[in-house]
Amino acid sequence: VKFSWSTQPSLLSLGIRSWTARKLMLLLASYVFYAAWNPPFVLLLWLSTLVDWTLAKRLVRVRVPWVRACLLVSSLATNLGLLAYFKYGGFIMENAASLLQSLGVSWQPSALDIVLPVGISFYTFQTLSYTIDVYRGKMQPSKSFLDFALYVSFFPQLVAGPIVRADHFLPQCEAPPKVDTRAIGWGLCLMVVGVFNKLVIADALMSPIVESTYTTDVQPTFLSAWAGTFAFATQIFCDFAGYSTCAIGVAMCLGFALPDNFKFPYAAIGFSDFWRRWHISLSSWLRDYLYIPLGGNRLGFTRTYVNLMLTMLLGGLWHGASWNFVIWGGLHGGYLCLERIINVIWQGLGLSRLTRTTKVLGVLTTFLLVNIAWVFFRAKTLASATSIVQAMFTFSLDKGSLSSMALVTSMGVTCCMLAIHCLLRDHSLESLVGGMHPAVFASTIAVMISVIIVCATTGQDRAFIYFQF
Predict the structure, then answer these.
(1) Whose CB among 87, 141, 276, 417 lies 3.0–4.6 Å from 56's, allowing a Cys bridge?
(2) How high is the pLDDT of residue 342?
């Protein structure tokens, strides 16, 4: 293999002239990356890859509707069956035991001790979308098994997204990308921004405040409940968006484009807007493969609200095997339903445009209601979540478990984040950087790197939150 500055951009494969060889190297690197966590679970990746590759090929050859339906069901059963066993097996057993006990039947299931494969929710949805799109006739199966295997296991976004669609990724595998040093440079900068968000803001600043609120035996107070939850809202955004930004940056350095997963969500006006900006790859997946097939808003008033609630409840359950996640999804489903009712009333009054005041009120109301839902997402138990929500509506100046510095840090960082989201609401990070003087941008990146190095030596770094999903 020759190594030189060739015509292809890839920090890991510069100089390998064969595009097939480079893709094979990326595939092997992806398997090694995943195996570094738990080698046997690579077998699950292979199983999903082989099943959906084989079934998709069969789908285009078969014309009998019921046979095609059976092939699709086989894919759904395999992928969702694996997901159900590893992610929800214990949850199902526990709730079945509770149900039987309420009926007077005593049954204690044995502990399953199931290890949850990291990223299984993400790559399961990714492979399912491929088979469903082939079944619907929206795309043809990939001609290359190597390309499809790389699509399923591409390591930058394998374990925490974004959830990539096959019609977005596979065309990029057909021909090698051309050299673009600016794209490589921007990809490296995105990695710095992502690590800064994760390591500095999420881990060093916000995580201790969140843990002081959510993992303490001290009764929460009005101030500690709100400050701790604001800190979590900032933490989870910087943690998850930080990972997505790193994934997009790494992929860009390798010559691939991944879709944006966040668009300044805390500047959302309403919850439809919020879900167009938060975890975009998941919300669009739920819309296209669950909400619309259920009937969307095409089957009347009542069915629309039922579909919204079902979609968000299942979206909550996707995040974890806990009733807290179901409640979190249910709250967002309720928010979306209430928003539709308000919009109907608003339009009935002949009010179509939003004033600056109503926009500000809309952003603040959305943010506060999102934070109430975050309580159920973060709390370990329903009792803990209920206690914190009750404290949120019981006014008190008692600081509770938080110090004055923690209160100031939480409120200050959260306000800064809200201001940045509002200022860039209709823009992008690229447009912001494009308007900066090169010296200012370089200095900013240098400061970020310096702070990252300092924080990395303090031992404050933690696993990405979405690794558990």
Answers:
(1) 141
(2) 87
pLDDT, position 299: 85
In the structure encoding, which two tokens stand for residue 446, read together? 């240098």
Question: Residue 376 corresponds to which tokens in the numbers above?
Answer: 């159920």
List residues with catalytic annotation.
319
| 442: alpha, beta or left? (left if phi > 0; alpha if psi -120 to 50) | alpha
* Per-run averaged pLDDT (10 residues), the chain, 469 residues: 36 66 92 89 92 93 91 93 86 78 75 78 92 93 94 91 92 86 90 94 92 88 94 95 94 92 95 95 94 89 92 92 93 94 80 79 95 95 94 88 91 95 89 86 92 79 73
Residue in the block written with tokens 């399912």: 128
